[in-house]
Amino acid sequence: MTLSMIVEIVVAVLLVITLSISLVLNRRLGNLRANQEEMRRLIVEFDRALSRARQGLGELKTTSAAADAAHEERMKEARTLRDELGFMVETADRLADRLAGEAAGSRSQRQERTPAARAEQAAPRAQERTQEAVTPFPAARKPAGEAAGAGRDFRIEPRSDAERELLMALRQAR
């Protein structure tokens, strides 16, 4: 065997290997070309789905921001109402304590008085009440057809400090 024959055999073997590799590549390229349209269709569908997802994400962000703003507004209103209610409760507690103290004091004074002294003190107080009586609201205009004195004429005693404070607190709460 000569050297030239060995070289020709090696070249022939390499050519067979190259031919087999090129056939495998040719088949794979043929499959790729055959599936190329399907790949394009899949890529277009994927792009559409991605666009819809981006649009949905934008809408979700907008909706979330609007809901967050509405929630913050409600929270501000709730905090304001909570503070007002807290103030009213504190004021009512103070007034209730004051009224309870005044009631206890008046009970003890009543128990100490004799029946004769009660009668003597009741007459001047009744006169004071009629003299100092005020209406709780300004007089409203009466309709033309209504007779004078036909409506109710409310008269109350002058308001105590506790009642004035409660009314002031309610007016400020508006």
TrEMBL record:
<feature type="compositionally biased region" description="Low complexity">
    <location>
        <begin position="138"/>
        <end position="151"/>
    </location>
</feature>
<feature type="compositionally biased region" description="Low complexity">
    <location>
        <begin position="116"/>
        <end position="125"/>
    </location>
</feature>
<dbReference type="Pfam" id="PF20072">
    <property type="entry name" value="DUF6468"/>
</dbReference>
<protein>
    <submittedName>
        <fullName>DUF6468 domain-containing protein</fullName>
    </submittedName>
</protein>
<keyword id="KW-0472">Membrane</keyword>
<dbReference type="InterPro" id="IPR045531">
    <property type="entry name" value="DUF6468"/>
</dbReference>
<keyword id="KW-1133">Transmembrane helix</keyword>
<feature type="region of interest" description="Disordered">
    <location>
        <begin position="98"/>
        <end position="159"/>
    </location>
</feature>
<keyword id="KW-0812">Transmembrane</keyword>
<feature type="transmembrane region" description="Helical">
    <location>
        <begin position="6"/>
        <end position="25"/>
    </location>
</feature>
<feature type="domain" description="DUF6468">
    <location>
        <begin position="32"/>
        <end position="106"/>
    </location>
</feature>
